[in-house]
């Protein structure tokens, strides 16, 4: 009996948005997320630079509440740098069809979906709900791609 590359789970998605292959569509999603994360890192640096220039005009009289702006900007930089790295690994995993490089993306987005779910319930916002549903759909597509790649890798690793 021949093995098929179809995953044996509840998520059976063959195309992204009914028109792109799963591999191509998730590569596009990965690149978009990578670029947006890199831009967010640049915005974080710009916030810190703008704050320091503004404060230098006041002879560096830094108040304690103002340190929150720097701390928030540093957190934005660190979080989005981590995101950009994970998205880069995700893109490489899709190109090389390596399931272990897709796993960090699944973990990061799983945590993100968990927090957005609570924020959506708390805010009762329709736009957040639509965004959450889109993220869940993309997560299901990425998980399906992970399942396909893991079934391919286990086929070749059989001794």
TrEMBL record:
Membrane-spanning residues? 31-53, 68-90, 102-120, 126-146
Q: Which UniProt keywords apply?
A: Membrane, Transmembrane, Transmembrane helix
* Entry protein name: Uncharacterized protein
Q: Which organism is it from?
A: Chironomus riparius
| Higher taxonomy | Eukaryota, Metazoa, Ecdysozoa, Arthropoda, Hexapoda
């Amino acid at each position: 009996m021949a093995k098929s590359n179809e995953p044996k789970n509840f998520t059976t998605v063959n195309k992204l948005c009914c028109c792109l292959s799963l591999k191509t569509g998730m590569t596009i999603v990965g690149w978009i997320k990578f670029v947006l994360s890199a831009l967010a890192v640049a915005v974080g640096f710009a916030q810190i630079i703008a704050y320091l220039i503004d404060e230098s005009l006041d002879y560096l009289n830094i108040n304690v509440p103002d340190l929150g702006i720097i701390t928030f900007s540093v957190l934005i930089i660190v979080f989005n740098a981590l995101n950009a790295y994970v998205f880069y690994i995700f893109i490489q995993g899709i190109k090389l069809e390596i399931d272990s490089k897709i796993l960090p993306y699944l973990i990061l987005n799983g945590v993100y979906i968990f927090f957005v779910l609570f924020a959506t319930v708390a805010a009762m916002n329709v736009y957040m709900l639509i965004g959450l549903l889109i993220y869940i759909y993309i997560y299901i597509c990425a998980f399906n791609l992970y399942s396909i790649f893991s079934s391919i890798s286990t086929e070749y690793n059989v001794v």
